[in-house]
Design brief:
This protein has about 300 residues and is α+β, with helices and mostly antiparallel strands. About 35% of the residues lie in helices and about 15% in strands. The strands form 2 sheets. Strands 4, 5, 6, 7, 8 and 10 form a 6-stranded mixed sheet that branches. A 4-stranded antiparallel sheet has the order 2-1-3-9.
Amino acid sequence: MTQPTSVRRAPGQRPPLPDPLSAALHLASAGVPVLPLRRGKVPFGNCPACAGSACGDRPHMKAAGPCRCPRVCHGWAAATTDIAVITSAAWAPMWRTAAAVAYHPAGAGLTVVDLDDAAAVAWARATLPVTKTVPTTRGEHWIYRGAMGSSNGVRPGVDIKSAMAYARYLGPGTGTMTALPDAVRALAAKEPCSVRPAPCAVTVPAPARGGECRHRTPTYLDRGIAMAEQRITEAHSAVHATVYRTFLAVLSTHGRCGCLTDAHVGRLFAAAQAKGESLRHCTDAWTNARTALGM
């Protein structure tokens, strides 16, 4: 089966790729689930039927996976090999404006090691088994045969994209694809998280001495937590930064009166882990946000 890989490029120049729809049809015919991306390498936005993940596409929900909605509405879970869907009237407007095509690696039995810069590439060449490689704007995708859980930031400049993630298709690559090695699985194993986020214990700020709650009702706090979860869930790039900024905003607004509980913080951590963040990164981001606010 033909698998998504990448294009050999001349120094400083990338050969032109097929238009997104043509590339998508080629991949789908080879059994690789695809979805269109808009400018910025971001999936098209949610439709009303799937707003707030009502369709069950969230990774930590039992119903995770493609829903019955006919639109491209929730990233990796919308990826499909169904030619009738890909060429349907519902998808046509998105292909007309699509900037690229992405694929769901695990759906094709693949794992992508995303090397974001030259230092990460040098590390991979010295550490990982050789496999098919895909040049990217700043680094390379190393594609292995075999699926696993996805995880961001397993080491500086290195993300793993497989289950519940998508990778941008950049054309046919170079080299021979090899089996997913234990060395890659070990990168994610070092992280105390999995695709399905586990509950985590978090220390939250104590109430200010003699302070009075500014929120008056639980509704204000619950709405703020829900908005923060949504902000994290809808982040399609700069996830690390989005998680930190969201934690900072929540702590700035809700962190000093004592109403913020472990359950609230656990919801934020779960949203971040559902985007592939590790528990360690969540904890570091939370600690850094508290430090920045002098808590």
